[in-house]
Design a protein that fits this description.
301 residues, alpha/beta, 6-stranded parallel sheet, 6-stranded antiparallel sheet, 8 helices, globular
């Protein structure tokens, strides 16, 4: 909704919307001319959208959401996919524009061989659903999915027409530790860091930073400190969570010790659920602050 109100088009809502309040707000945005596409993973979802869109002068584009192995959302087998596609295609309130098949968990399997083996089984499920849709006379115009951790594999198979990649733009610790390719290093560098400040430097062996559980996603590993010369942990610094508002920067013997008031940059552990905790990006070119981008959608959930 925040993006639609700023005039951004081509918006795909990748999660099924089922709450009446959400359906009503999205239907209103659609009526105002916003370019929205929704996903549906159950026949009841078609009926809910038809009720919300009653009287709409134009159909709302919709994808069938397919579960290819994550078991989070999505129709579970080809027959269910075809049934939903038929319901959407027959509905005057909706237009059948394609399918979505995204698997988030597989994106972060670190070893390339392990990730590939897991993902190929999921691709087989997608291809079975696509074949069933073709047999039913409902070949999808758009196949949306793929991700930063799988796009290289997806390119080999050619199923997707739209990629849902995003983390590669900023990167984080989790993706830095994923072997994205079998035969070459990851091509992307980190552009997103959290700038923290040393607020206490009295204890031996560590200093205290002003960023703890409230500042980072905590579903993965700890943040990674960047030493003043840009070197990662090898410089003798290690971050540990130290409470809601605090982080501990552990300093090994012989490593440089930051002073009270110094700043320390940290690579986020998981970028997606970290950025929504903050009000703005500070855009930096070298040592120069060039812009501040507000997080317009922060807190709207």
């Amino acid at each position: 909704a925040a993006m639609a109100r700023e005039g951004i088009g081509g918006l795909l809502l990748t999660s099924p919307a089922v709450q009446p309040r959400h359906l009503a707000e999205l239907a209103a945005l659609h009526a105002e001319g916003s370019e929205l596409t929704v996903v549906i993973d159950h026949p009841d979802g078609v009926a809910a959208w038809e009720a919300a869109l009653s009287g709409s002068p134009r159909p709302l584009p919709a994808f069938v959401d397919i579960d290819i192995g994550m078991e989070r959302t999505g129709a579970r087998d080809p027959d269910a996919v075809v049934e939903i596609a038929k319901r959407i295609a027959a509905s005057p309130a909706l237009s059948y524009d394609g399918v979505q098949a995204y698997s988030g968990r597989v994106q972060h399997i670190e070893a390339y061989a392990d990730r590939r083996a897991t993902y190929l089984a999921q691709i087989a499920r997608l291809e079975a659903a696509l074949a069933a849709l073709g047999d039913a006379g409902l070949p999808p115009q758009i196949v949306s999915g793929c991700g930063t951790g799988t796009f290289g594999i997806d390119l080999e198979h050619g199923n997707y027409t739209e990629a849902q990649v995003g983390s590669y733009v900023v990167m984080d610790r989790e993706y830095n530790e994923v072997e994205l390719f079998a035969d070459r290093p990851n091509p992307w560098e980190v552009s997103l860091v959290m700038r923290t400040t040393v607020i206490s430097a009295n204890a031996p062996g560590h200093v205290t930073l002003n960023a703890g559980f409230k500042s980072f996603a905590t579903d993965g590993p700890e943040p990674v400190p960047l030493a003043p010369d840009g070197a990662p942990e090898g410089a003798g610094w290690r971050y540990e969570f130290f409470g809601d508002e605090y982080g501990m920067l552990v300093i090994e013997d012989g490593a440089p010790r930051p002073a009270l008031g110094d700043t320390v940059d940290l690579v986020t552990p998981h970028c997606d659920p970290t950025v929504n905790l903050h009000d703005a990006y500070h855009v930096v070119d070298g040592d120069r602050l060039v812009d501040i981008w507000p997080m317009e959608a922060r807190g709207v959930l």
